[in-house]
C-alpha cells in the first residue's frame, strides 16, 4: 500500500497534536513521506481537536480526500466524523469505559473498540498516556514505524528520566497488546516500511518553513505581533535570529511591527514581519508607505478565516484582494504564493531578493493549511540561496534617490553613506530628489516609475509551472495550498484519461497575464478553485486577463480535497 | 571620530529647503535649537537620521541636511525604533506634534518609553492640530474651542505629556519653550547626550489657530524648575509635572536616570546566545532532522 491517511480526533489538551507529531516524525524516519493537517479550537484547552497524517511512499501533494482510518478519543470526535466513515474505512474508538456509550456498528466500516481511557487511567494509572495507548495501537495495526516510534519516545522523554520513558513505552505496549489480544485484523491497511530514510530529509511545518526561508534568504531583522495562525513564524525567528546576531522585536501591534521593519529597511537591513488577516488589515497604510518610499520589506501573511476575528484557527484564502490591492492609492507591490512547505522556504527566501531588487513590499501569501501542516521534505542546502541586494548609491555628488530610469529602479543610499546621498524617505509624492512635489507632471512621472518596476519584474519572472500538455477540456488555475490539491486532482483526472491540465503560478501579483492567456487559449474551460466566498482569484483574473473562469469557492474553514475538485472538474467538462 | 577639517556650524545642518511654517510659529525656534544642539555635539550629517510623522512640526526633517524619514501619521516612533535597532551606530532623533504623538500615535509612546529605546524625541506641543486648521488635540484644555468642537471640547481631561512619559518609564523627561531658546538649546544638548529614551516636550505656540495658549500666555506662564529640584527623584518629577504653581508651567529637566537601553538589552541576549553573524546555516536546517 502506498498511501494511507489516519485521522485522530478528540478533546483539545488530550495530547492529540503531540501524538500526531510523533507518528509523523517516526514515519519520516522509516523513510515514508508525510503531510499532516490539523484543526484545533481557538481556546487553549477543551473543544474538538483533530490531527490527520497522510503517509506515502511517493511525493504527497495535498491533505488527501477524507481518511482511511479514524481514531476517536471521545464521543464528540466520533459524532463529528461519523459522516466521513464510508464503507472501506476503519474506526478505532474509545470503548468500553469511555464516554462512547455503545458499541459502534457501521455498514462496511471495520470497527475496532479500544478502551484507551480505561487502559490509561485504570490499568496503567497514567491519565495523560491515553494518546500513547492509541499510538501503540495505530502503529501496530497499520504497520507504521513501530520501532522508530519507540526510539523516538526514548529520545523525547529521555531528558525527563528513565521512569518517564518506561511509563510511556508501557502505554504504547498496552495499546499493542490490547489490539493483539482482542482483534483479528480484517482491514487491508498496512503501510509497511519504505526501506531506509533518505539522507537529506527534514520534517518541518509551513510556519517554521517561512522562518527558515527568511533566515536562508538573509533576513536579519524581524518584528511581529502575536497572532494565530502565524505566531509559529515569530517563534522560529526568536530562536534563531539572536544566534545569528540579528534583531528580534516583539512589537506593540502590527502597525508598529511593519513600522519597525520599514525603519530597519531604510537603514539597510533585510527585514520582515509575519501576520495573519487582522494584522495585515492594520498594516495597509504602511504597505502604501513602503510602496511610495520604495523600501524593500517582506510580509508573510498566513491567511485565516475572516472578516474581523473570523475563524482564527481555520484555513481560508480570503486575503487575496487585500494583498494585491489593499490600502489607499495606487500602490504597487508583489504577491507570491507557495504551494507547499518546500515552496514556502524557497519563496520566502526569494521574497527578500524581489523586495531588494524592486524596492517594494513583497507579500508571501501562506494559509492556514500550509502554516499548520508538517511535511517531510528534501533538505534545503543553504549554499544554494543567492542573495540579490538593492541597487546602491556609490557616493559622489548629483545623487537622485528616485532617479527616473527605464526599469523604474533607482539606486538607494542609506544612512552612513555620503552626505550627498542623504534624502528624506517620504510618503508624500516627491520628485527625483525626494523633495515633496505635487505638480501634475511630476505626479504622473513618479507614479509611472513605481509601476514600471512591475513590468520589469514581469519580463524577468519565470513562467508559471505547467502540468499536462496539449489541448484540454478543463484547465485549473489556483494559488497557495489549493495548488497542491489541484495538482493531485489533475493527476487523478489524467490517469482516468480526461483532458485536463493545470497552471501553477507562484507570482500572483502582478499577474502573468501573457502566460495565463496562452494557457487559457489551450483550454475549453478554465476552473479556478479557491478557499474564499467571493472568488477573489477568479475576479482578479477577469480584470487582468479578460479570461472568464468558472469560479469554485469553498469557505467552510477547510481546504479542498482532491476528490471534491475532481468531481467539479468532471462537472464543468 | 573623524578627522574633520572644519567643525560643523549650526547653519551647516540646514538643507536648501525653505521652512514653510506660518510666520511666528514656535517651530522655527525649535529648528534653530535643534541645529545648535546638533552642532554642539558635532553630529555627523551622514549618520544622523531625523524621523517624523505627519503634521506641521513633522515637516522639520526636510529642513535639515541629515538623512531622514517622513513617515505616516502617528508612526514616527516605531519607524525610528526600526532604524535604531537595525543600526545602533546611527543617531536617531524623532520630531512630531501633540496630535501625531499622543492621539493617532499614542499607542506607541508607552512601549518606546518602557523599552528605553535609544531615541531622542522632540515633541512640538501647540495644544492644537495646525495642519488641518485648528482642531483640539489631546493636550488642548478641556472646554477649549476647536474647529470640529465649536461648542467646546467635551473631553474631561487632557494629556499631561510629562507625567505620561514619566509613568511609562522614560529615562529622560524635560520641558522647554520655543520662546526660551537658551534653555531649549541646553535641554536638547542634554537629551542628545542621554543614553536611552529622551523625551523633550517643547511648548511651541500656534499663532494661527490657537488663540488661548499663545506666545504671550506661555511667556508669562513659564517658570524654571526650582533650583533644588532633584532630577533623579521620580516622585518629585511627577509631582512637579502634575502640580506646578497656579497659572505656571515648569521648564527644565524633570527627570533623568541611566538604565539599560533596548539596544543594550538585545545585545545582552544575543551575547548569551553566542551570536555569530557567520554561523553555519546548516545548523538551522539540520535542527529539523526527523
Largest interface: A-B, 64 and 54 residues
- In which range does the helix fraction of chain B lie? 25-40%
Query: How would you classify the helix and strand content of chain A by structural class?
Result: alpha/beta
Basic shape of chain B: globular
CATH superfamily of the largest domain in chain A: Pyruvate-ferredoxin oxidoreductase, PFOR, domain III
- Enumerate the spans of chain B where pLDDT stays under 50 for 5 or more consecutive residues: none
Count of spatially separate domains of chain A:
3
- State the shape of chain A: globular
Number of helices of chain B: 10
Rg estimate of chain A, integer Å: 26 Å
Write the CATH architecture name of chain B: 3-Layer(aba) Sandwich
Extended strand count of chain A: 22
| Tally of separate domains of chain B | 1
> Which radius of gyration of chain B do the C-alpha atoms yield?
20 Å
- State the low-pLDDT regions of chain A, or none: none
Alpha carbon gap, first and last residue of chain B: 52 Å
On the 0-100 scale, what is the average pLDDT of chain A?
Answer: 95
> What is the helical fraction of chain A, as a range of percent?
25-40%
User: How much is the average pLDDT of chain B?
Assistant: 95
Fraction of residues in β-strands of chain A = 15-25%
The largest sheet of chain A is: 8 strands, mixed
Q: Can you describe this structure?
A:
The complex is a heterodimer of chains A (573) and B (290). By secondary structure, chain A is α/β, with parallel strands linked by helices. Chain A has 3 domains: 3-182, Pyruvate-ferredoxin oxidoreductase, PFOR, domain III (Pyruvate-ferredoxin Oxidoreductase, domain 3, 3-Layer(aba) Sandwich); 205-384, Thiamin diphosphate (ThDP)-binding fold, Pyr/PP domains (Rossmann fold, 3-Layer(aba) Sandwich), CATH 3.40.50; 465-572, Rossmann fold (3-Layer(aba) Sandwich), CATH 3.40.50. Helices cover 38% and strands 20% of the residues of chain A. Chain A has 18 helices and 22 strands. Chain A has helices at residues 16-29, 75-81, 116-123, 130-141, 146-158, 162-182, 206-216, 231-240, 254-266, 277-293, 320-325, 341-358, 368-372, 440-460, 482-495, 513-520, 536-545, 562-572, and strands at residues 3-11, 33-39, 48-56, 69-72, 90-93, 110-113, 201-205, 221-224, 247-250, 271-275, 297-305, 311-315, 334-336, 361-367, 374-378, 424-426, 465-467, 472-477, 500-504, 507-509, 523-530, 550-553. In chain A, the strands form 4 sheets. In chain A, strands 8, 9, 10, 11, 12, 13, 14 and 20 form an 8-stranded mixed sheet that branches. The two termini of chain A are 31 Å apart. The mean pLDDT of chain A is 95. In chain B, strands 2-1-3-4-6-5-8-7 form an 8-stranded mixed sheet, with helices on both faces. Chain B has one domain (10-286): 3-Layer(aba) Sandwich (Rossmann fold), CATH 3.40.50. In chain B, α1 (26-41) packs across α6 (181-193) and α5 packs antiparallel against α8 (234-242). Chain B is α/β, with parallel strands linked by helices and 290 residues long. In chain B, α8 (234-242) links the parallel β7 (222-224) and β8. Chain B is built from 10 helices and 8 strands. Chains A and B meet through α1, β7, α7, β9 and α9 of A and β1, β2, α2, α9 and α10 of B. β16 of chain A pairs parallel with β2 of chain B.
Amino acid at each position: 500500500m502506498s498511501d494511507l491517511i489516519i485521522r485522530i480526533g478528540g478533546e483539545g489538551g488530550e495530547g492529540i497534536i503531540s501524538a500526531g507529531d510523533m507518528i509523523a516524525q517516526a514515519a519520516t524516519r522509516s523513510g515514508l513521506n508525510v503531510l499532516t493537517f490539523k484543526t484545533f479550537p481557538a481556546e487553549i484547552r477543551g473543544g474538538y481537536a483533530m490531527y490527520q497524517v497522510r503517509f506515502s511512499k511517493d511525493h504527497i501533494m495535498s491533505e488527501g480526500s477524507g481518511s482511511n482510518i479514524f481514531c476517536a478519543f471521545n464521543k464528540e470526535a466520533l459524532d463529528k466524523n461519523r459522516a466521513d466513515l464510508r464503507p472501506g474505512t476503519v474506526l478505532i474508538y474509545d470503548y468500553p469505559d469511555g464516554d462512547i456509550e455503545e458499541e459502534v456498528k457501521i455498514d462496511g466500516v471495520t470497527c475496532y473498540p479500544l478502551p484507551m481511557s480505561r487502559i490509561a487511567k485504570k490499568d496503567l494509572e497514567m491519565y495523560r498516556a491515553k494518546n500513547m495507548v492509541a499510538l501503540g495501537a495505530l502503529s501496530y495495526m497499520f504497520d507504521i514505524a513501530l520501532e522508530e516510534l519507540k526510539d523516538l519516545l526514548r529520545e523525547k522523554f529521555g531528558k525527563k528520566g528513565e521512569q518517564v520513558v518506561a511509563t510511556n513505552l508501557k502505554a504504547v505496549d498496552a495499546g499493542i497488546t490490547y489490539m493483539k489480544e482482542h482483534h483479528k485484523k480484517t482491514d487491508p491497511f498496512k503501510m509497511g516500511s519504505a526501506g531506509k530514510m533518505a539522507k537529506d530529509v527534514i520534517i518541518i511545518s509551513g510556519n517554521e518553513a517561512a522562518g527558515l526561508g527568511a533566515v536562508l534568504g538573509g533576513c536579519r531583522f524581524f518584528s511581529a505581533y502575536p497572532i494565530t495562525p502565524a505566531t509559529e513564524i515569530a517563534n522560529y525567528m526568536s530562536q534563531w535570529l539572536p544566534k545569528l546576531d540579528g534583531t528580534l522585536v516583539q512589537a506593540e501591534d502590527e502597525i508598529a511591527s511593519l513600522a519597525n521593519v520599514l525603519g530597519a529597511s531604510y537603514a539597510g537591513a533585510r527585514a520582515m514581519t509575519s501576520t495573519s488577516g487582522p494584522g495585515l488589515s492594520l498594516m495597509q497604510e504602511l504597505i502604501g508607505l513602503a510602496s511610495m518610499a520604495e523600501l524593500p520589506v517582506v510580509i508573510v501573511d498566513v491567511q485565516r478565516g475572516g472578516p474581523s476575528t473570523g475563524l482564527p484557527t481555520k484555513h481560508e484564502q480570503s486575503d487575496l484582494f487585500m494583498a494585491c490591492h489593499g490600502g489607499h492609492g495606487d500602490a504597487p507591490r508583489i504577491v507570491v504564493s507557495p504551494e507547499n512547505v518546500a515552496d514556502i522556504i524557497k519563496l520566502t527566501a526569494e521574497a527578500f531578493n524581489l523586495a531588494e531588487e524592486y524596492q517594494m513590499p513583497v507579500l508571501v501569501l501562506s494559509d492556514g493549511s500550509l502554516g499548520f501542516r508538517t511535511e517531510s521534505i528534501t533538505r534545503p542546502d543553504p549554499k544554494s540561496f543567492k542573495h540579490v541586494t538593492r541597487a546602491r548609491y556609490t557616493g559622489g555628488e548629483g545623487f537622485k534617490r528616485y532617479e527616473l530610469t527605464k526599469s523604474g529602479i533607482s539606486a538607494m543610499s542609506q544612512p552612513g553613506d555620503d552626505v550627498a546621498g542623504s534624502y528624506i524617505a517620504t510618503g508624500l509624492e516627491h520628485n527625483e530628489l525626494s523633495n515633496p512635489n505635487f505638480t501634475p507632471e511630476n505626479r504622473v512621472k513618479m507614479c509611472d516609475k513605481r509601476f514600471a518596476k512591475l513590468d520589469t519584474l514581469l519580463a524577468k519572472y519565470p513562467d508559471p509551472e505547467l502540468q499536462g500538455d496539449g489541448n484540454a477540456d478543463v484547465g485549473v488555475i489556483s494559488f497557495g495550498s489549493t495548488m497542491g490539491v489541484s495538482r493531485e486532482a489533475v493527476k487523478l483526472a489524467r490517469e482516468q484519461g480526461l483532458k485536463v491540465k493545470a497552471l501553477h503560478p507562484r507570482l500572483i501579483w502582478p499577474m502573468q497575464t501573457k502566460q495565463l492567456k496562452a494557457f487559457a487559449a489551450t483550454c475549453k474551460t478554465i476552473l479556478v478553485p479557491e478557499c474564499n466566498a467571493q472568488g477573489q482569484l477568479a475576479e482578479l483574473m477577469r480584470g487582468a486577463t479578460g479570461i472568464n473562469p468558472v469560479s469554485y469557492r469553498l469557505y467552510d474553514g477547510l481546504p479542498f480535497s482532491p476528490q471534491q475538485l475532481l468531481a467539479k472538474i468532471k462537472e464543468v467538462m | 571620530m573623524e578627522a574633520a577639517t572644519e567643525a560643523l556650524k549650526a547653519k551647516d545642518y540646514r538643507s536648501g529647503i525653505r521652512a514653510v511654517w506660518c510666520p511666528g510659529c514656535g517651530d522655527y525656534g525649535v529648528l534653530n535649537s535643534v541645529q545648535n544642539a546638533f552642532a554642539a555635539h558635532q553630529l555627523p550629517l551622514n549618520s544622523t537620521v531625523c524621523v517624523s510623522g505627519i503634521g506641521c512640526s513633522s515637516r522639520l526633517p526636510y529642513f535639515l541636511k541629515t538623512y531622514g524619514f517622513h513617515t505616516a501619521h502617528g508612526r514616527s516612533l516605531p519607524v525610528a525604533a526600526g532604524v535604531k535597532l537595525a543600526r545602533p551606530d546611527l543617531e536617531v532623533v524623532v520630531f512630531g506634534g501633540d496630535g501625531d504623538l499622543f492621539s493617532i500615535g499614542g499607542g506607541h509612546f508607552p512601549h518606546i518609553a518602557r523599552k528605553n529605546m535609544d531615541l531622542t524625541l522632540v515633541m512640538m506641543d501647540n495644544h492644537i492640530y495646525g495642519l488641518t486648521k485648528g482642531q483640539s488635540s489631546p493636550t488642548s484644555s478641556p472646554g477649549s474651542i476647536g474647529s470640529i468642537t465649536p461648542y467646546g471640547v467635551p473631553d474631561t481631561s487632557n494629556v499631561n505629556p510629562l507625567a505620561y512619559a514619566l509613568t511609562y518609564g522614560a529615562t529622560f523627561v524635560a520641558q522647554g519653550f520655543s520662546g526660551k531658546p537658551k534653555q531649549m538649546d541646553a535641554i536638547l544638548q542634554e537629551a542628545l547626550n542621554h543614553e536611552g529614551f529622551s523625551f523633550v516636550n517643547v511648548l511651541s505656540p500656534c499663532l494661527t489657530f490657537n488663540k488661548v495658549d499663545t506666545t504671550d500666555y506661555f511667556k508669562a506662564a513659564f517658570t524654571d524648575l526650582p533650583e533644588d529640584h532633584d532630577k533623579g527623584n521620580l516622585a518629585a518629577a511627577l509631582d512637579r509635572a502634575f502640580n506646578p504653581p497656579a497659572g505656571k508651567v515648569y521648564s527644565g529637566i524633570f527627570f533623568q536616570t541611566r538604565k539599560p537601553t533596548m539596544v543594550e538589552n538585545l545585545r545582552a541576549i544575543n551575547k548569551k546566545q553566542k551570536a555569530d553573524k557567520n554561523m553555519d546555516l546548516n545548523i538551522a536546517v539540520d535542527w529539523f532532522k526527523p
